[in-house]
């Protein structure tokens, strides 16, 4: 599952919405254990006035081995919804990459959402932050621990996807501390939660080459 990729792209300024799922196959109900002929993907919605598709493609290609053939489940792939996206991605691959890419370009036909435990994975797996969120917003912590499911938490509190996405990015360990500070300063959460996120970031060596 592309858990680091969704956190990495979700932390970019101008990206407004991300979710993780499966596409590219004909299996009617894919899941992690029975994915069939689908590919694991990250859906990205972005504000073209702030970030370009080329910017997103640069981060995408810089942070995985696009030269390595893999089984379809994990294959380097881009699914486009407009012909202009295909043109831009194809041009990027021809002119901006140092090595020939095995990345597949395909039209998006159907998308299947991944299981809830994979959404905002790093946030869900940081109990100290989750407990503070549950306390701050008076949510039923027993429900979260029993179901390990952040989605009703987001819906019930009407917390924006932007907030959860950026917190997930801040906790991923993928970004340098100074970038994490910028992420946290851009969202409205209690200072105690920001301090916990900053403390975690200060003890992690960044794994991406974004900066």
From TrEMBL:
It is an enzyme of class 1 (oxidoreductase). InterPro entries: Met_Sox_Rdtase_MsrA_dom, Met_Sox_Rdtase_MsrA_sf. Its EC number is 1.8.4.11. The keyword Oxidoreductase applies. SUPFAM superfamilies: Peptide methionine sulfoxide reductase. It comes from the Eukaryota. It holds the Pfam family PMSR. Keywords: Oxidoreductase. One of its GO terms (molecular function) is peptide-methionine (S)-S-oxide reductase activity. The keyword Oxidoreductase applies. Residues 11-126 form the Peptide methionine sulphoxide reductase MsrA domain. Belongs to the MsrA Met sulfoxide reductase family. This is peptide-methionine (S)-S-oxide reductase.
């Amino acid at each position: 599952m592309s858990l680091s990729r969704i956190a990495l792209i979700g932390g970019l300024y101008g990206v407004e919405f991300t979710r993780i799922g499966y596409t590219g196959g004909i299996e009617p109900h894919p899941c992690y254990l029975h994915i069939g002929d689908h590919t694991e993907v990250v859906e990205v919605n972005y504000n073209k006035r702030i970030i370009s598709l080329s910017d997103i493609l640069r981060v995408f290609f810089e942070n995985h081995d696009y030269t390595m053939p893999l089984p379809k489940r994990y294959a380097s792939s881009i699914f486009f919804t407009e012909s202009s996206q295909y043109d831009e991605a194809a041009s990027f691959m021809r002119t901006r990459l140092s090595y020939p890419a095995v990345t597949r370009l395909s039209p998006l036909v159907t998308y299947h959402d991944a299981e809830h435990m994979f959404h905002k994975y790093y946030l869900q797996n940081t109990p100290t932050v989750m407990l503070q969120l549950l306390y701050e917003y008076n949510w039923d912590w027993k429900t979260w621990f029993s179901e390990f499911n952040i989605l009703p938490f987001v819906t019930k509190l009407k917390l924006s996807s932007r907030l959860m996405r950026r917190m997930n990015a801040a906790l991923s360990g993928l970004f340098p501390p100074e970038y994490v500070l910028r992420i946290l300063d851009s969202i409205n959460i209690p200072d105690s939660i920001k301090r916990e996120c900053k403390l975690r970031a200060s003890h992690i060596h960044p794994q991406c080459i974004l900066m």
